[in-house]
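Q: Give me the 3D complex with S-adenosylmethionine.
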Amino acid sequence: MNYRHAFHAGNFADCMKHALLVWLIDALQAKPAPIFVLDTHAGAGRYDLEAGPAQRTGEWRQGIDRLLDTPPPALARYLGCIHALGLYPGSPALIRAMLRPDDRLACCELHPDDLFQLRRLFARDPQVAVHQRDGWEALGGLLPPKERRGLVLIDPPYENPDEFSDVAAGLATAHARFRTGVLAAWYPIKHRAPVRGFFTALQQTGIRDIVAAEFLLREPVLPDRLNGCGLLVVNPPFRFEHDAPPILQALLERVGHNERGALAAVTRIADE
Ligand SMILES: C[S@@+](CC[C@H](N)C(=O)[O-])C[C@H]1O[C@@H](n2cnc3c(N)ncnc32)[C@H](O)[C@@H]1O
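A: Here is the predicted complex, encoded as structure tokens.
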């Protein structure tokens, strides 16, 4: 467990994931019934971009820093949430800020330092449970939720080559236990081959109704670079395929560098 999200918080990939996350939660909250959100790989919850690891890498300067002035309309809702929160939010703080009084959030984290910060952030918060628990195992243990409605965010560090397989297996477990849940899994795009294998593995699970929202800064031919990223969504809410492309496009216009192969697209991986 070497990965520390604090080094990467606010980079273009974080912005892409969180902009779509905000859209997904809004869509689920279009109905008044309470929702449950499970964040299987939660990180520290929020980050100081002006200090420590984030300041050292400066990745956020090519991400969130390029978005905050004069937000494009498609990103206004997401950036409004960021502005309202002060310290830059990771997925737990962002999700928590969106919960209505009867909604719940459960976060899993294994790194002791991140766990400590997460616990401090949500101390005495009756709507948030913080678990020192393996996120993969939690997919079996915490699903289905009593609310029967909600979202699972799967955002592992991709530290080892097997992690795409873990995500495919994790999605199959989550879907078997929580068939109506919206499942969202972030993935890196360094080059195409692992992503193709991931899609094939997903198609072999037999899960229906899967789309992939993808964002590429450039042609993914440099396997050592994070050339782009995707958010795989099972059971995408109505209009996701319509609303996600302009969000991705607006992001690309702000953080892209007009490189060859840049892309913002939503593709269907499995039919409804
Ligand atoms: C990409 S970061 C999460 C970022 C967070 N979701 C966000 O958007 O702000 C991945 C996190 O997963 C944690 N982690 C790694 N393996 C884990 C596991 N098996 N179960 C739970 N957390 C894990 C890491 O310590 C790291 O903090």
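A quick observation: The longest helix spans residues 12-28.
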